[in-house]
Amino acid sequence: MKIGFIGVGAMAQAIIQGLLKAKLVPAENVLIHSAHQRHYEDYANEYGLTAKDTNLAVTEASDLIVLAVVPSVAKKVLAEIRSGLSDNKVLISIVSGISLERLAELTDYNLPILRSLPNINSEFGQGMTAVVANENLTGEQKDQALSVFEATSEISELAEDLFPAFSAISGSAVAYIDFFIDALSRAGVKYGLSKAAATKIAAQTTFGSADALMKSGQTPAEMIDKVCSPGGDTIAGILAMENAGFLSSVVKGIDATIKKSTGK
Ligand SMILES: NC(=O)C1=CN([C@@H]2O[C@H](COP(=O)(O)OP(=O)(O)OC[C@H]3O[C@@H](n4cnc5c(N)ncnc54)[C@H](OP(=O)(O)O)[C@@H]3O)[C@@H](O)[C@H]2O)C=CC1
Ligand SMILES: O=C(O)[C@@H]1CCC=N1
Prior knowledge:
This protein has helices spanning 10-22, 37-47, 55-61, 71-81, 100-105, 139-150, 163-171, 173-190, 195-216, 220-227, 233-243, 246-262; strands at residues 3-6, 30-33, 50-51, 64-67, 90-93, 113-117, 127-133, 153-157. It is of the alpha/beta class. Residues 6-12, 33-36, 39-40, 55, 68-71, 73, 77, 94-96, 117-120, 171 line the site of NADPH dihydro-nicotinamide-adenine-dinucleotide phosphate. Residues 2-96 form the Pyrroline-5-carboxylate reductase catalytic N-terminal domain.
């Protein structure tokens, strides 16, 4: 199986690194092209990938074609690769905000297409990806397309109208969670910890909390209650955070993310 990437920016690189770690395909079976020759050639050389001269050449030589460009250039790129697509290849889009209907309209209504929304944690096999297939993508071909994300992440098959919410609380939320870790870390610095030590402590605590939450099967509220000793320190902190608008500031951030991705 050959997997082509059109665009090798932050998200494509995370998936490629995840795929290489998972050994889903040999490195030379990953084909790439992007806007800047120096960038895609250097990246291909560094990891033993195959660089191609054009987006169309990637498409023609691949079984799965991952569209990994920013939304504003997707239309132009799809026009370039359209003639290389056929029903024995799968177009996989990771582009935020472009629907299956729009992808088909810009290419061909008979093509198998998978719309996905991964997150950057795919690099370490810890991603979370939403997927939705069109009616032309079924059976073995669908399994093959899903294998890219199974190798790098958990998968959630979602209705398309939930993609903006998913993108906000997963794709974008990696940054929001890191923002929270950085906030904890800066608070640690305020009270004398070094930034490096505070960041490690905050990151491990975040990681361990997410792991424990999932392993316990409890709700976040139940976990919070276990940490808040009666009359203790944590409940004082929770109340002060909420008084400063913690919940509504997080929801406002998600509202803004969804508004930007949908224009609504
Ligand atoms: N970053 C993330 O966490 C996530 C991103 N996404 C989606 O992934 C897509 C890419 O985002 P991201 O990786 O962050 O963006 P980047 O800006 O990091 O990467 C964009 C890539 O597109 C390439 N590119 C630009 N124009 C062309 C062209 N005409 N032909 C071929 N390649 C081109 C660039 O080439 P070059 O490198 O040579 O300049 C670059 O490699 C977006 O649609 C985004 O919505 C989805 C989920 C999460
Ligand atoms: O910021 C963005 O537009 C992309 C979509 C999800 C994560 N990054």
